[in-house]
Design goal:
3-stranded antiparallel β-sheet; transcription regulation (chains A, B); DNA-binding; 3 strands; Arc Repressor Mutant, subunit A; DNA-binding (chains A, B); alpha+beta; SdpR-like_repress (chains A, B); about 90 residues; homodimer
DNA sequence: TATCTATTTAGAAATATTTCTAAATAGATT
DNA sequence: AATCTATTTAGAAATATTTCTAAATAGATA
């Protein structure tokens, strides 16, 4: 929900890698899990955090849950960085 | 040094608040510590992490150490966010 | 030189996070 | 209905992080 949550979620390399995988389109939890050396349960845990922070959304189809990237959530982080980073070419919401 | 380190450092609200304080100019460790309900030792620990990640630099003057903001380090984060966030108005280095 | 002041370091306790295995859920297929 | 498949949840173990107190450092002042 807040900036801390977003940052904390992005701090873990695995979660950034999941986000990168989803850049090419929606994937099932299984597909995501099999690209990492982690159990499905662990990947499920990371997906939950990503979902809670709003970085991904899910849609169900048959037996599968497809995860998709939601890029709008990056806005708050950009806004904060531009504020402290002293840049001024970033439009306000 | 890497993106994970930067993100991890920014994930903690206290450290973002320290960065925000430094936006108005260099401050001593003591000045920073007295604006938070934390011991000097704890603030020193956070300053060390911020320094390691390159967000701040220090200069010594007499008995004091002044900490200053180094905003160039935000670039890598911006680059990553623009890549996954699908924005394309951010110049490459 | 002795002491004061600002800050850091060491080490321990408290807390939080990540990962695993095993079990649970729930929808699809036979 | 029984079973299979994809995924999540629960709970525990391993690991990492934050915070504190007490001690150390090191430069400044008396």
């Amino acid at each position: 929900m807040g900036l801390s949550e977003s940052m904390k979620v992005l701090a873990e390399p695995i979660r950034r890698q999941i986000i990168e995988r989803l850049k090419t389109g929606p994937k099932t939890a299984g597909e995501i899990a099999s690209s990492f050396d982690l159990t499905n349960a662990t990947v499920s845990y990371h997906l939950k955090l990503l979902k809670q922070a709003g970085f991904i959304t899910e849609t169900k189809d048959k037996n599968y849950i497809y995860y998709s990237l939601n890029s709008t959530v990056f806005e708050d982080i950009l806004t904060w960085i531009y504020q402290v980073g002293g840049k001024n070419d970033h439009a306000e919401k």
